[in-house]
Amino acid sequence: MTATELRHDWTLQEARELFELPFNDLLFRAQSVHRQHFDPNEVQVSTLLSIKTGACPEDCKYCPQSGHYNTGLEKEKLLEIEKVVAEAKAAKQKGASRFCMGAAWRSPSKKDMPYVLDMVKQVKSLGLETCMTLGMLKEEQAVELADAGLDYYNHNLDTSEKYYSHIITTRTYQDRLDTLDNVRKAGMKVCCGGIMGMGEDEDDRVGLLMQLANLPHHPESVPVNMLVKVKGTPMEDMEDLDPFEFIRIIAVARIMMPASHVRLSAGRENMNEQMQALCFMAGANSIFYGEKLLTTANPEADADMLLFKRLGIRPEQREQCASEEQEEEAIVEAVEYEGTRHMFYDATRESA
Ligand code: SAM
Ligand code: DTB
Ligand code: SF4
Residue 57 C-alpha to ligand 3 middle, in angstroms? Predict the structure, then answer.
């Protein structure tokens, strides 16, 4: 089978037609495209850490960290590098291949940059892929991060251009596109996606996917978040999204960006295992792994590994040099053990 070519000229009509396909036809098509570019039984695993929490000056209506809303979140200063490195080591031991660090900033300040650059270097030296999401970046800041060895930068468009002003007023859609451009020019990989279930209509969902797919390069990573409704935010009472609609979004993202990793991102706490399995079938091949996203809950790591085991899914290995392979194998074994641990009675444990 030859791999589908990557297109950057999707029309609204074509994207709408994909959305409107019968569910089984859409999933079959998405899975066929997926198999041309990826091992269908591998899922990339990233762990998130909030390195600076809350009191953000931006007014993103979905976000528990915005200083404009009272969500009862305990704010925290920039974490010390040693703490970040300890968390990164623990994530690696549990089987994550990428470590993503997020800060509740509009953009990083001059004073914070040296710490952040040092963090990148130290986390990378553990043999993990690195990702950061720190808000808007100027051209020079993107170059500094790339020079420090940052592999990915996450900056989401969040929704369609048309719906955007209903969600955020403190920065424009164009600001976001400019940051993405700076990240790309600096040579880093782009992680860019959005949130579903914020009251947008189907054309907004199509609009977001078109924006992403028609960028000069598809983002290497496309996080599709389902809104986590946080009390105190303007979106706390938003209506639930139909699960089939969410799975369709994953499938259309897979078809429009065949070679990108599509991440089943925030919101998995509110998805049952069957829904997640259908998302993997539709072409999702990346997750956030670990009990916490930035400030909200994510499924327990061993529950995820058990789900992988039941579905015959393996965590994707990071591209690596030969000397790291043995260490990586040991991690895979540890993950396999973690996934099956609860299936067996441990005869060596003393009863209480
Ligand atoms: N402050 C930086 C920024 O916004 O560019 C980086 C961190 S911000 C929390 C990263 C992304 O998390 C947002 O763009 C949004 O897509 C996602 N996010 C935040 N709150 C969310 C929620 N309640 N549900 C789903 N996704 C959310
Ligand atoms: C992304 O698209 N989703 C992640 C990551 N990029 C940084 C963040 C999800 C945050 C969910 C709400 C929270 O835990 O604060
Ligand atoms: Fe701040 Fe990012 Fe949350 Fe917006 S999404 S309020 S920029 S932390």
Answer: 8
CB 305 within 8 A of CB 67: no
pLDDT in tens, 65-117: 999 999 988 888 888 999 999 999 998 888 788 999 999 999 999 999 999 99
Chain centre to alpha carbon of residue 247: 16
Long-range contacts of 160-163 (CB under 8 A, 24+ apart): 160/200, 160/203, 160/204, 160/205, 160/206, 160/207, 160/208, 160/211, 161/207, 161/211, 162/203, 162/204, 162/207, 163/198, 163/200, 163/201, 163/204, 163/207
Please tell me the distance from the alpha carbon of residue 8 to that of residue 136, in angstroms, as a whole number.
24
DSSP 53: B
Residues flanking ligand 1, CB < 6 Å: 56, 62-63, 65, 102, 104-105, 133, 135, 155-156, 158, 195, 225, 227-228, 230, 266, 294
- What are the pLDDT digits (tens) for 230-267? 999 999 999 999 999 999 999 999 999 999 999 999 99
Q: How far apart are CA 341 and CA 178, in angstroms?
A: 47
Separation of first and last alpha carbons in the chain: 57
Return all residues near 125 (Cβ < 8 A) that are at least 6 apart: none
Q: Are 198 and 167 in contact (CB under 8 A)?
A: yes
158 in ligand 3 pocket by Cβ < 6 Å? no
Q: H or E element: which one contains 351?
A: none
Atom of ligand 2 nearest to the CA of 193: 2
The token pair at 241 is 């999204």
Where residue 189 falls (left for φ over 0; alpha for ψ -120 to 50; beta otherwise) is beta
DSSP, residue by residue, 142-188: HHHHHHHT--EEE---BS-HHHHTTT-SSS-HHHHHHHHHHHHHTTP
**Number of neighbouring beta carbons within 10 Å of residue 110:** 7
**Residue entry with tokens 């996080």:** 223
